[in-house]
Write a structure and sequence with these properties.
460 residues, alpha+beta, six-stranded antiparallel beta sheet, 18 strands, disordered N terminus
Amino acid sequence: MKSSFRKFAAWPVIAVFTVFNSAAALGQGSQPFLQDIKVAAPSATPFIKKTGSSAPLSSAPTSGVRTSIPVLAEATIPGYSGVLVESLSGETVVESAGNTPFNPASNVKLATAFAVLKTFGPDYRFPTSVWTDGSYEEATGTIHGNLYVSGRDPVFTSEDGVTLSNELNRMGIRTIKGDLIVTDNFTMNYSTSPQRSSQALFSTMDAAKRSSAATKAWSNFLINSGRLNQNTAVPSVSFTGSVYVQPMPGNVNLLFSHESARMRDILKVTLCYSNNFLSERLGDMVGGPYAVARLVQQHAGVNPYEFSIQTASGLGINRVTPSAMMKLLRALRRDLNAYKMSFADIMPVAGIDKGTLENRFDSDFATGSVVGKTGTLGQTDGGASSLAGEINTRAGRFLFVIFNQRGSVSRFRSFQNNYVALIQGQFGGAAALTYNEIPLNARLARTRIAYPNGKRSDEE
């Protein structure tokens, strides 16, 4: 690989850095994947201290850049920044402030994804179970008693609520002469409130009360799941009672469970859209941000002083060195390989996947050559922007970490785009990864129904 460095570095290269301002429009649809950044005041921790100054600096916190490639040594790195690029075999291409802690912003989500995969595996599905304490009257399609719903699926949305009605209808059930009882860990449509989630489910299951947005979500689900021609009736279940958030009693019988998309697909959506709600919910399921950090420290070989976080999403004050993030990338890559997966299975491929990298590295020659995770904090630490992942070139693949802090986020993004292209230029230019795109909505539509006898709807 060293000979490759010298070979491509010897090529005449002209680097033109064009700084431009770009604004990303974050839209809110029925599924609020892209979210506005709202930073809450962090609590004190033994490992994290807020920086004393947020004034922009013009140079990196260490002197000089370590690299054998002259063009990279001469490139100006803006703000208070750290950069680390390595070959897959571990050779350093360029390093600057690799051991200095920075705010990684949403690059923290890579740690959360790592911890979730360690805990659940890539094929885990979240069950949302439907129970009853009543009796079934077949002649009228009525359950005399209450219907109970329990589960903690973080991506349970309107179409999944209609799916519950559809499955009850398939079983012959159309009326519940009783209440809808939902447990307090249930969430729907990315709401943190069990009360709002339970009310949303209550109205969504009954076609007479269903919103137009929920109806549209169901239609889109049928298209995305390939079931459009399989469902012609309008699913609906009515209740004579009301809806409550309460614990589950002991005298209930399981009717079926709705199983979410696989964890790998949930992570793909989370990282593509950098969804804060999903990251925090997933982080909570492994024990919170400190448990996430501990798993990284144990399995990626990093120390607490170089990797300490207060949130599972990257909001607020977190501190990670470029060297620690590089170790995390390698550990994550190793675990994915064990499942016969790659970064592209859970992270956005630039210029192809919807989300934060949709309009970056999207030129004719660069599309599909970068898979990575972005990070953005407009005000925290004077402005922070990050990008980490894998670069593909004609000479091979490289892992990279770029942490920019204390400056203009749009300027940092421009630097990252041009700096990655500059690195690719030293190794023969960009080369597209082998990647078959699956739309994100189609990934989340890969749900199924599981029955008490062990059978599942995708096995029928």
